[in-house]
Design goal:
Shape of chain A: globular
CATH superfamily of the largest domain in chain B: Metalloenzyme, LuxS/M16 peptidase-like
CATH architecture of the largest domain in chain A: 2-Layer Sandwich
Number of domains of chain A: 2
Distance between the termini of chain B: 70 Å
Strand content of chain A: 15-25%
Strand order of the largest sheet of chain B: 1-2-6-3-5-4
Structural class of chain A: alpha+beta
Number of strands of chain A: 17
Helix content of chain B: 40-55%
CATH topology of the largest domain in chain A: Cytochrome Bc1 Complex, Chain A, domain 1
CATH architecture of the largest domain in chain B: 2-Layer Sandwich
Strand order of the largest sheet of chain A: 1-2-3-11-4-10-9
Oligomer: heterodimer
Largest sheet of chain B: 6 strands, mixed
Number of domains of chain B: 2
Largest sheet of chain A: 7 strands, mixed
Largest interface: A-B, 46 and 50 residues
Radius of gyration of chain B: 23 Å
Radius of gyration of chain A: 23 Å
Order of helices and strands of chain B: EEEHHEEHHHHEHEEHHEEHHHHHE
Shape of chain B: globular
Number of strands of chain B: 11
Helix content of chain A: 40-55%
Number of helices of chain B: 14
CATH class of the largest domain in chain B: Alpha Beta
C-alpha cells in the first residue's frame, strides 16, 4: 500500500495519506490518547452544482434546486431500514450535512471503529432510492424548509447573498424551495449521484487514535470503482463584479433588528496556498478593524449599537468570496456608516503594525487550540480540502505573512462600493 | 509514559482556607485551563447579585481597567480565552471563572503562559476596578441592563424555556425554582456599593475549588496555590445539600399561552433517587432507555411510530432528583402525546425492555462517558459534580457500575418515579 506520511513538528501533528486506485484519497490524522474517533466521507458536490455535464455526455443539464441536500437525506435509507439504527446498535453517532460545495457523511464512536467505518463506506456507496421514498421525503424536507424560513439569522444571511449576487448559485437556499423540490425525481437523483459520487470526486478523513494501515486497508477493500474518470464539467452562470443591490430588508417576528453586512470580494485565487494566504490576511484585517480589541468594537459596544452577538468571518471558495459581519442592533444602518467611517480613517492614518503583530499571534494561537478537538480538525480539513489546501499549512502561513501583504489586501477587499447590508426588522 | 489510569483523573492536591485544589493531568491537549469556582446557596435574595459579580469583574481590573485592555492582553497571550458567569447545580449557585491558553511550546518557547494566565485570572477576581470603596457606577449600570435583557430573552429559545418553566412551576416553593441569573425585579436594589460588599463576602466566605488541567509541572502548581492562599478568608459558608424528597399529592397542570407555531410539552417527575444513592446508576440506564437517543422508547414511539414530534427526549436533573420529558408537538396533540409517553414509562415498569433498547443504551452511555475525556472543560465539569455530591467516580468506575445495571434494576428504580407537573407552552388556551 502506498502510504505517505508527513510530520508537522511545530504543531505536533502527523498526516498519513493513501491514494486509492480509483483516484480517491484517504487521510488519517492520528490523535493518540483520544477516546473519540471521527470519520468523514465527503463528495465535492453541493448546492451550487445545479448545472453540469456528466462524464461521457455532451450536453449540460440543469437540475432542480435543493437536489444535493435531497440526495443526502435519501442515502440514509436502505432496503432493510435506516442506517441510523445500525450505527446506534454499534454505539456510534452518525450525521451528515450539505453545504454550498460539499456533501459530508460522518460518524463518531469510541469503540468498534472497524464496523462503523465499514458501515459508512458501504451505505454511501449504495444508494437505494424508490419513487415512494422520494415522495415521502418531499414532505419532510418541506417542513425543514419552512423551519429555515422562520430563522432570522438564516434569512438575513441569504438575503445578503442575494444582495451580493445576481446570478451566482450561492444565493440559492441549500435545501431549495417547496416548488423546486417538487420537481425532483428518482432518475435525476441517480444522475446526480452517478456524476458526483465517484470516488475520484470524494475524500475520506479519519481523526483519532487509530492505526493508519488498518484504516487504509479497509479503504482499499471497500471502495469500488477502480480506474479514474474524466473530469466533471461544472457550469456556473456569468455574473458581474458589482453588487446586485447594496441594501435589502425583510420583516420577521424578532424582538430587535438583526443584520448581516459584508464586502463582496472581486479578486481571488480559489485554490492552493494563495487562497489560504488571502483568507488569513483578511481574517487578520477583520480582527484589526472590528475585533474585541479594536476601538470601533468597543465604541459601538459601549454606545449600545452592537452587543455580544456581533461576529465576523470571511469565506473564499471556487467561484465566490466575501466577508460577512453582523448581529443584533437597534440601528444597523448606523453601524454600517460607522464601519465605513472607520475604514476611511484607517486608509488615512494607515494600519497599525503593532496591532497586526499582536493579532497574528492571537489568531495563530486560536488555530492551534482547535487542534484539541477531533471534530474541529475534521470539519476544518473537509472545509479546505477541495480547494487543494491542507489545514496544517495554516501555521506556516501565519508565520510567513507580511505587513505589506496585509496592506495590499486591505486596499483590495475593503472597498466601500462593495459593501452590502441585509436587515431583518421586527414585523 | 504516564499510566492511563492516573491520567485524566482529578487528584486533590491541596486544601486550605476552604479552597480545594484539583489537578487533572493530561498530555494530549495543546492548551491548559485554569478554572475557579465559588459556591453559594441558591436563594432569591442573592441570586441576581451573584450573577452581577462576575459580569462586573469581567469589565476590568487594576492592571487592565477596561474590557478593551483585557482583550488586548488576551491577544498577547496568543489568543487566550477568558470567561466568567454563573451556573446552578441543584440548589447551589456557582460563580465560575476560567481561562484557556496554548502551552509554552506553541507560544515560541519560554513564554511563561501559565504564570501570565494565572496572574490575569487572579487579578480579575481579586483586584477589580474600585472607586471610593465601590465598583465603577457605569460598569454596574450597564451590566444591570445587560442582565435584565439576558433574563428577558429567555423566551427566545422556546425549547429551553419550556423545560425551565416546568421546573420553576414544580419547585415554586423550593429554591430550585429560582432562575440561574435571578429575577428582573431583584435588580433595582443593586448598586455599586452593596454589590461591592457582596463581592467581598464572596471572596471571604464562599467555598472554592480550583481545577487545573493539562500538562503542568509541580512548580507551576505550587505557584498558583501560593498566590491564591493570599485571599483573606473568614468563616467559610456551609452550602446545603439539596433536598430531593417531596411527596406529590396531586399532579399539576400548567398551560402558558405564547405566539408559537408548535406546542412545547414538558413533563416533570420526582425520581426519589439522589445522585449518591446505590441505584442512581440504574436511574441513568432507565433514562437512557426511556428517552436518551434514537434507540429510546420515546423516540421510537412518539416520533417514529406516531409521527407526533420532531424532537422528544428525557433528561435527568441529577442534583435535585428530577427528570424531565420534553417534546415539540402540534398543539392539538397534547393528550395523545401524554398518553404515549406515560404508556412507555408503564412498559418499563412492567419489564418490557428489549435487548436492543437495553444494549444500545449501555453503549450510548459508555460512549458518552468516554467522550468526556476529549474535552478539558467537560472533564472539569464531571469532577466538579463528583465533588459536589461526594461520589468518588472516575470515568472507568462509572462505566463499570453502569454495565452492572440489570433490566430488573431498571424496573425497580422506575417504581419510585412520580409525575409531578405537566407544563404546556401553546398558542391555544382552553376556556
Amino acid at each position: 500500500m502506498n502510504i505517505k506520511t508527513v510530520e508537522y513538528k511545530k504543531i505536533d501533528e502527523i498526516m498519513h495519506i493513501y491514494e486509492h486506485s480509483s483516484g480517491l484519497r484517504a487521510f488519517v490524522i492520528p490523535k493518540k490518547g483520544y477516546s473519540k474517533k471521527f470519520a468523514t466521507f465527503a463528495t465535492h458536490y453541493g448546492s451550487i452544482n445545479n448545472e453540469f455535464v456528466a462524464p461521457g455526455e455532451k450536453d449540460a443539464i440543469r437540475v432542480p434546486d435543493g437536489i444535493a441536500h435531497f440526495l443526502e437525506h435519501k442515502l440514509f435509507e436502505q432496503k432493510d431500514g435506516s442506517v441510523m439504527d445500525k450505527f446506534s446498535e454499534l454505539g456510534a453517532s452518525p450525521n451528515a450535512y450539505t453545504s454550498f460545495n460539499q456533501t459530508v457523511y460522518l460518524f463518531s464512536c469510541t469503540d468498534k471503529f472497524r464496523e462503523n467505518f465499514e458501515l459508512l463506506l458501504n451505505f454511501v456507496q449504495n444508494p437505494y432510492i424508490t419513487d415512494e421514498s422520494v415522495e415521502k421525503e418531499k414532505g419532510i424536507i418541506g417542513q425543514e424548509i419552512k423551519m429555515y424560513q422562520d430563522d432570522p439569522g438564516w434569512r438575513s444571511f441569504f438575503n445578503l447573498l442575494g444582495a451580493f449576487y445576481k446570478n451566482n448559485p450561492v444565493k440559492i437556499d441549500i435545501a431549495g424551495t417547496i416548488d423546486s423540490i417538487s420537481r425532483i425525481d428518482r432518475e435525476t437523483l441517480y444522475k446526480c449521484y452517478n456524476t458526483f459520487y465517484h470516488p475520484s470526486n470524494m475524500v475520506i478523513c479519519v481523526v483519532g487514535d487509530v492505526e493508519p494501515e488498518e484504516v487504509f486497508g479497509q479503504v482499499e477493500a471497500l471502495i469500488r470503482s477502480t480506474g479514474s474518470r474524466p473530469e466533471i464539467k461544472r457550469i456556473f452562470p456569468e455574473d458581474g463584479k458589482e453588487l446586485n443591490k447594496n441594501y435589502v430588508e425583510q420583516k420577521l417576528a424578532v424582538a430587535t433588528p438583526l443584520f448581516q453586512m459584508g464586502f463582496k470580494d472581486t479578486m481571488f485565487d480559489s485554490k492552493g496556498i494563495e487562497c489560504l494566504k488571502r483568507e488569513v490576511a483578511i481574517k487578520i484585517l477583520l480582527e484589526m478593524i472590528m475585533g474585541k480589541s479594536s476601538q470601533l468594537y468597543n465604541q459601538l459596544y459601549s454606545e449600545g449599537l452592537i452587543n455580544s452577538t456581533f461576529e465576523f468571518d470571511y469565506t473564499i471558495e471556487e467561484n465566490y468570496s466575501f466577508s460577512i459581519f453582523g448581529g443584533e442592533s437597534s440601528d444597523p444602518s448606523k453601524v454600517r456608516d460607522r464601519i465605513g467611517d472607520s475604514i476611511r480613517e484607517l486608509r488615512r492614518k494607515g494600519l497599525d503594525r503593532n496591532a497586526y503583530e499582536r493579532i497574528k499571534k492571537a489568531l495563530k494561537g486560536k488555530f492551534i487550540r482547535q487542534l484539541n478537538s477531533v471534530e474541529r480538525i475534521s470539519h476544518l480539513f473537509i472545509g479546505v480540502y477541495f480547494k487543494d489546501v491542507n489545514i496544517f499549512d495554516y501555521p506556516d502561513v501565519y508565520d510567513k505573512i507580511s505587513f505589506e501583504y496585509i496592506n495590499e489586501k486591505f486596499e483590495e477587499h475593503f472597498v466601500l462600493d462593495n459593501l452590502a447590508l441585509s436587515v431583518i426588522k421586527p414585523a | 509514559m504516564q499510566n492511563r489510569a492516573v491520567e485524566e483523573q482529578a487528584l486533590k492536591i491541596a486544601s486550605l482556607n476552604g479552597i480545594d485544589f484539583y489537578q487533572i493531568k493530561t498530555e494530549k491537549f495543546k492548551t491548559n485551563t485554569i478554572n475557579i469556582f465559588f459556591h453559594d446557596n441558591l436563594r432569591k435574595e442573592t441570586a441576581a447579585k451573584n450573577a452581577m459579580v462576575p459580569a462586573v469583574l469581567r469589565r476590568g481590573c487594576e492592571r487592565f481597567p477596561t474590557l478593551r485592555d483585557i482583550s488586548l492582553y488576551l491577544e498577547e497571550l496568543y489568543g487566550a480565552s477568558f470567561d466568567c458567569g454563573v451556573t446552578k447545580k441543584g440548589e447551589r449557585q456557582i460563580i465560575q471563572f476560567y481561562i484557556e491558553f496554548v502551552s509554552d511550546k506553541y507560544a515560541g518557547g519560554n513564554a511563561g503562559q501559565f504564570e501570565k494566565a494565572t496572574d490575569l485570572l487572579i487579578d480579575i477576581i481579586m483586584k477589580p476596578v474600585v472607586e471610593k470603596d465601590a465598583f465603577r457606577n457605569d460598569y454596574v449600570d450597564q451590566e444591570k441592563e445587560n442582565l435584565r435583557k439576558l433574563i428577558e430573552s429567555r423566551v427566545n429559545d422556546k425549547m429551553q424555556y419550556a423545560v425551565d418553566r416546568c421546573f420553576e412551576e414544580m419547585c415554586k416553593d423550593e429554591p430550585f425554582g429560582i432562575y440561574d441569573y435571578g429575577a428582573v425585579d431583584d435588580l433595582a436594589d443593586i448598586n455599586s456599593r452593596n454589590l461591592f460588599e457582596h463581592y467581598k463576602s464572596m471572596l471571604e466566605t464562599y467555598p472554592m475549588q480550583v481545577f487545573i488541567t493539562g500538562n503542568v509541572g509541580e512548580d507551576k502548581i505550587k505557584g498558583i496555590i501560593d498566590k491564591l492562599s493570599n485571599i483573606k478568608r473568614g468563616k467559610i459558608k456551609k452550602v446545603d445539600i439539596t433536598n430531593i424528597e417531596k411527596e406529590v399529592v396531586k399532579v399539576r397542570n400548567v398551560t402558558e399561552p405564547m405566539n408559537v407555531n408548535q406546542g412545547k410539552l414538558s413533563l416533570g417527575f420526582r425520581t426519589n433517587t439522589s445522585s449518591n444513592d446505590e441505584d442512581y446508576y440504574a436511574l441513568m440506564v432507565y433514562n437512557g432507555i426511556l428517552g436518551g437517543g434514537i434507540h429510546s422508547k420515546l423516540f421510537q414511539n412518539v416520533r417514529e411510530k406516531a409521527s407526533l414530534a420532531y424532537y422528544v427526549f428525557s433528561r435527568l436533573e441529577k442534583f435535585k432528583g428530577l427528570m424531565i420529558i420534553s417534546s415539540g408537538i402540534e398543539t392539538d396533540n397534547k393528550d395523545k402525546a401524554i398518553d404515549i409517553i406515560l404508556s412507555q414509562m408503564d412498559e418499563i415498569q412492567k419489564g418490557n425492555i428489549s435487548d436492543y433498547e437495553y444494549d444500545s443504551t449501555l453503549k450510548a452511555i459508555e460512549t458518552g462517558i468516554k467522550s468526556l475525556r476529549d474535552n478539558q472543560l467537560q472533564m472539569v465539569d464531571f469532577y466538579l459534580s463528583q465533588a459536589i455530591v461526594n461520589t468518588d467516580d472516575n470515568f472507568e468506575t462509572l462505566n463499570e457500575k453502569i454495565k452492572k445495571v440489570s433490566k430488573q434494576d431498571v424496573v425497580e428504580v422506575s417504581k419510585k418515579i412520580k409525575l409531578d407537573t405537566i407544563y404546556f407552552l401553546t398558542s391555544k388556551v382552553r376556556q
